[in-house]
Amino acid sequence: MGFGPAGPTNRIRLPPWCPRKAKADNHALLHYVYWMDSLDDRLEEVCQKYASSFSRKIYSPESESLDPLMNLFGITQELKRENKQYWGRELGMCFQSLVREICKAHCDKYQPGWRDGADEVCDVIVNKDAIDTKYRVGSGDSGTLKKFRQYGMRLSEAGFRPVMAIVRADNLGAAIQAARAGGWTVYQGNETFAYIETLTGFKLKEWLEGRTGRFKIDRLAH
């Protein structure tokens, strides 16, 4: 209720962005106020949904140990901490490319990875092994775990053995369990390099260790 020159009125002072209809019609005004309250509730529901999702997000802390790919490029844990997502992605792509080249050169029954539309279900196929290469699995969000299960089932149904070959051994346990539940055979750390040697006859770990520091990165100052 507002006050005019002749005393109290029933008009409510509204902000300038309020619709004209609501300013002129009390019924429309009540509907508008209710709608705004309802919008607040919906927006808060969205925020609460994400707050809950963020709270459930699980990360596995990465150990301070180095690995053959880090040593190859002279990458320290301190450097990786500047942008873990970037280094994890790029080192993963590097490992994928190395494994592909080795399989191309040493495996008669090599096939490129299986793409289904926008989905890259696996990176390399050798014989009946459909191989997904990774640098590290440190996140256990529901989308990632769902993909592990879905892709594993699709590969198995197509007659392949889903194999996940991971460079590092300090992976999130829940993610590894989800992958195995989806039908993946999971190799981590030294197991991965042993698997690649058995599959191709190529000793990738020894090859990388023999080139430690040879490709040391030179970061330009900005």
Structural overview:
The chain is α/β, with parallel strands linked by helices and 222 residues long. Helices cover 51% and strands 14% of the residues. The chain folds into two domains: 20-56; 68-209, 3-Layer(aba) Sandwich (type ii restriction endonuclease, domain 2), CATH 3.40.1560. The chain has helices spanning 20-24, 26-56, 68-73, 77-82, 84-106, 142-157, 173-181, 190-200, 204-209, and strands at 2-4, 7-9, 110-112, 115-116, 119-120, 124-126, 129-134, 161-166, 185-188. The strands form three sheets. Strands 3-6-7-8-9 form a five-stranded mixed sheet, sandwiched between helices. Strands 1-2 form a two-stranded antiparallel ribbon. It is globular, with a radius of gyration of 28 Å. It starts with a strand and ends in a 13-residue tail after the last helix. The model is unreliable at 1-12 (pLDDT under 50).
Q: Please tell me the overall pLDDT.
A: 81
Please mark out the parts with pLDDT under 50 across 5 or more consecutive residues, or reply none. 1-12
Structural class: alpha/beta
Euclidean distance between termini CA atoms = 61 Å
What kind of oligomer do you see? single chain
Outline the biggest β-sheet.
5 strands, mixed
Apparent shape = globular
Sketch the topology as an H/E string, one letter per element.
Answer: EEHHHHHEEEEEHEHEHH
* Tally of domains: 2
Number of helices: 9
Could you tell me the radius of gyration in angstroms? Answer: 28 Å
Reading off the top of the CATH hierarchy, the class of the largest domain is best stated as Alpha Beta
Report the CATH topology name of the largest domain. type ii restriction endonuclease, domain 2
